[in-house]
């Protein structure tokens, strides 16, 4: 089986889509990486709610929820995630 390799810059340019609702969630803002195991733990999307005084933390999605990394999109299964704020 052939593995696909992606750079962090390439991943950050991909749009994230929830396959359970079809909603476009945005683009990857950051990644959490386990440097000891050399694997991605989660992806972080920017929070849509902007506050004048609060710092936006973003929405963290566990890597286990990523179902497919395509050419220009990342598909996730958000069926049991609380992503109602994103729609």
Automatic annotation (TrEMBL):
The lineage of its organism: Bacteria, Bacillati, Bacillota, Clostridia, Eubacteriales. NCBIfam families: spore_YlmC_YmxH. Gene3D superfamilies: PRC-barrel domain. InterPro entries: PRC-brl_dom, PRC_barrel-like_sf, Spore_YlmC/YmxH. Pfam families: PRC. This is PRC-barrel domain-containing protein. Residues 6-79 form the PRC-barrel domain.
């Amino acid at each position: 089986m052939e593995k696909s390799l992606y750079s962090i810059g390439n991943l950050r340019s991909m749009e994230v889509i929830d396959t359970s609702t079809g909603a476009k969630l945005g683009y990857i803002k950051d990644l959490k990486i386990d440097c000891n195991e050399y694997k991605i733990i989660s992806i972080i999307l920017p929070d849509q709610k902007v506050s004048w005084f609060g710092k936006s933390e973003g929405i963290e999605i566990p890597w286990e929820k990523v179902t497919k990394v395509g050419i220009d999109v990342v598909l996730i299964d958000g069926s049991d995630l609380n992503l109602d704020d994103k729609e």
